[in-house]
Amino acid sequence: MSDTIEDEKFVELNYKVIDNKTGAVLITVDYPLGYVHGVNDVMSEEVTKALYGKKVGDIIEVPIDTTLLYGERDESLVFTDRIENVPEEYREIGMTITMENEKGEPRNFIVTRFDDKTLTVDGNNPLCGRDVTFLLEVLSIRDATDDEIEAGGAVDANPDLNQILDRAK
């Protein structure tokens, strides 16, 4: 059994997304993200290619072109409204509000700013328009089961909170 990442291996990793301009950590995923390499396209092609051949314990940095993943930033998806028009439960930075367009298609908007007069929401992906690097740590590698290969990831994809907390200790 190979201990390197290759197609049809079940891989668990955690990752951070770092803003290259500021050095700020934008996203941290400390619990294991499991997938079947070469089968599941949950990650960008750049990340998948960079992981190929890596071993448990390897930490890699992959610069990501967010324009390829999320498209160009669309300023028409940024809206500001008077605060009295916004229900109080939405007045929190980072709050996600789901709205529908005229065709009934849902889109998530994130509250990016508010003060005593206005509230601004943004329908762009939070990484859109940023220069970022994914910092990934390989936690485990094993042969994927037939069921995992068919599903592209863990068959029981609902993690047990106690298992996650035990791993964090």
Describe this structure in words.
The chain is of the alpha+beta class and 169 residues long. The chain folds into 2 domains: 9-69 and 128-150, Chitinase A, domain 3 (Roll), CATH 3.10.50.40; 74-122, Thrombin, subunit H (Beta Barrel). The protein is 15% helix and 40% strand. The protein contains 4 helices and 8 strands. It has helices at residues 45-51, 66-70, 146-151, 161-168; strands at residues 9-19, 25-36, 59-65, 78-82, 96-100, 106-114, 118-122, 131-143. Strand 6 and strand 7 form a beta hairpin. The longest helix has 8 residues, at 161-168. The model is unreliable at 158-169 (pLDDT under 50).
Low-confidence stretches: 158-169
Number of helices: 4
Q: Into which percent range does the helicity of residues fall?
A: 10-25%
Query: How is the largest sheet built, in terms of strand order?
Result: 2-1-8-3
Average residue pLDDT: 86
Would you count the extended β strands for me?
Answer: 8
- Rounded to an integer in angstroms, the radius of gyration calculated over CA atoms is 19 Å
Shape: elongated
Strand content: 35-45%
- Highest CATH level, the class of the largest domain: Alpha Beta
Q: Which helices and strands, and how do they pair?
A:
Elements: E1 9-19, E2 25-36, H1 45-51, E3 59-65, H2 66-70, E4 78-82, E5 96-100, E6 106-114, E7 118-122, E8 131-143, H3 146-151, H4 161-168
Antiparallel strand pairs: 1-2, 1-8, 3-8, 4-7, 5-6, 6-7
